[in-house]
Write a sequence for this structure.
């Protein structure tokens, strides 16, 4: 089955040469210590290492990161959450920054989804920790049939999602390419 969804760089005729996968996802948080506690104590991730601070008196911050030249990245922290890609969180001081997280419908809107083997147990865990759950778990239909999901919010308002499809998704029966999943 693995040969259906793993392609070597030689087999790809388009896209990035040597593409091997998603290495990490990064996002900015308002309070690095509070976010670290949330991801470690509530979600169950492991803090791997930290870097920073980063600042420049020139234009390095704008040229390399696309932020205000006087922005200061106080620190960044890398995390691992069981299987899947790594992620990093940043805390910035910056002129002209927006402090409200984007909604999914906003340009640049995003969310981070965590695969769990028991969605109901994971939702109960989040509720015990006072996490705001958006609605109730939803059963997908169409190609995603077999999946259940629910969105929730971090204490600072960022959208996250829990996803579970222990029996797989319907699309996989006929698709020549499979999405990554923890059990693969």
């Amino acid at each position: 089955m693995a040969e259906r969804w793993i392609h070597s760089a030689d087999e790809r005729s388009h896209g990035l040469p040597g593409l091997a996968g998603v290495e990490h996802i990064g996002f900015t948080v308002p309070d690095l210590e509070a976010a670290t506690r949330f991801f470690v104590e509530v979600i169950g991730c492991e803090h791997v290492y930290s870097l920073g601070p980063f600042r420049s008196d020139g234009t390095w911050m704008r040229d390399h990161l696309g932020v205000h030249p006087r922005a200061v990245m106080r620190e960044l922290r890398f995390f691992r959450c069981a299987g899947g890609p790594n992620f990093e969180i940043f805390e910035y001081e910056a002129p002209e920054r927006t402090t409200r997280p984007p909604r999914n419908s906003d340009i640049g809107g995003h969310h981070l989804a965590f695969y769990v083997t028991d969605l109901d147990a994971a939702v109960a865990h989040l509720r015990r920790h006072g996490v705001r759950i958006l609605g109730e778990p939803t059963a997908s239909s169409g190609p995603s049939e077999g999946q259940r999901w629910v969105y929730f919010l971090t204490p600072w308002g960022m959208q996250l999602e829990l996803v579970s499809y222990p029996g797989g998704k319907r699309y996989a029966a006929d698709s020549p390419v499979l999405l990554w999943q923890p059990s693969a």
Residues 16 and 111 are 24 Å apart (CA to CA). Helices lie at 32-43, 60-65, 119-128.
